[in-house]
Amino acid sequence: MARRIGESGMNVQCIMFRHSLHGMHMQLRHLRHLVALADEGRFVAAAERVHLSQAAFSRSIQALESELDLRLFDRGPQGAVLTPAGRVIAERARQLLFDSRCLERDVALLREGDLGDVSFGAGPFPAATLVAPLLASLHREAPGLVMHVRSGNVASLLTLLHAESIDFFLADPRLAAPDARLETAPIAQLEGAFYVRARHPLARQRVVRPADLQRYGVASVFTPLELRDALARGLGFDGAAGFPLRAECDDLPTLLHLAQHSDLAVVLPHALVAASTRSLKALTLAGAAPPLYADVQAVWLRGRTRSPAAQRAIDLARQVAATLPGAVVIAGLRGGGATAGSAT
After folding, report:
1. Are 194 and 292 in contact (CB under 8 A)?
2. CA 295 – CA 233 distance, rounded (Å)
3. Residue 341, pLDDT score
4. Mind listing the pLDDT tens digit for each residue in 160-183?
5. Dihedral of the alpha carbons of 269, 121, 247, 216, in degrees to the nearest 10
6. Alpha carbon 306 to chain centroid distance?
7. What's the CA dihedral at 300, 305, 308, 314 to 10 degrees?
8. Is the whole-model pTM more than 0.90?
9. Distance between CA atoms of residues 187 and 316, nearest Å
10. How many CB atoms lie within 10 A of CB 59?
């Protein structure tokens, strides 16, 4: 009896929930118009963005201001500018619209279960080492799953994430500013080293010192100045200004080619070199040099439910990463302080 009452209660809640959503539709539409005008700054551009005539769009904004009894925009020759009250309302409107999209998504997940597709991004290190075996494993486990992958640096992946174009991304979150809107889960630390071609003069040295790297120069993926400065000091240089960086590139195959065909010492993950070539040698650095690794984590928007397919991909990424050369999987690892030498 208790079980049947519980099931009946859930059905009633669903019906009430649908009616509540229907009643909120007009308010959400007004909020979308508010955000569009705040972003565009001009009525014509904002109206085009939401596919309305300028007259209809103007009426919508006026109706919202009338309903709230607040002036949200100052109109002038330069366009529409948010008033102080408008800035507060626009910020809350963005969050409400985000929550409404999350709610719609959660309902779809509850109704349909696995949606049958997953969209995620990958930073340079995981893109070059982890993504290919991950996609192969995903396809073996779920042949009907459609997989969409975007690669790039952390800044570009954050843009895609906040635009809700991807469900999550794999990268080192320490390469971005702390953001309370994000959640992370550990995947693995992908260790690496300075690599040179087999016939490079440094390849014959037992240990390599800062002066040696200064002589030939180094190449790596893009690293924020703070992390580069910490790495440089850990290697014995006088901060980032004294670090002999000669090339930065977020494409690992390009960096691999550079290591094979130039005199630069290139920071590469062990997993990529092991899978690609035997013509490179890892340098042994003198002294207590900091470890070089990418702290790869899954990053998603706080409050956004991960689809079953996205969660499967994250779980499988951790399993696949554990099989890569130079990968260290640490249970419970979270994005923390900036470790000198981390790169992604």
Report:
1. yes
2. 20
3. 37
4. 999 999 999 999 988 888 899 999
5. 0
6. 14
7. 20
8. no
9. 9
10. 13
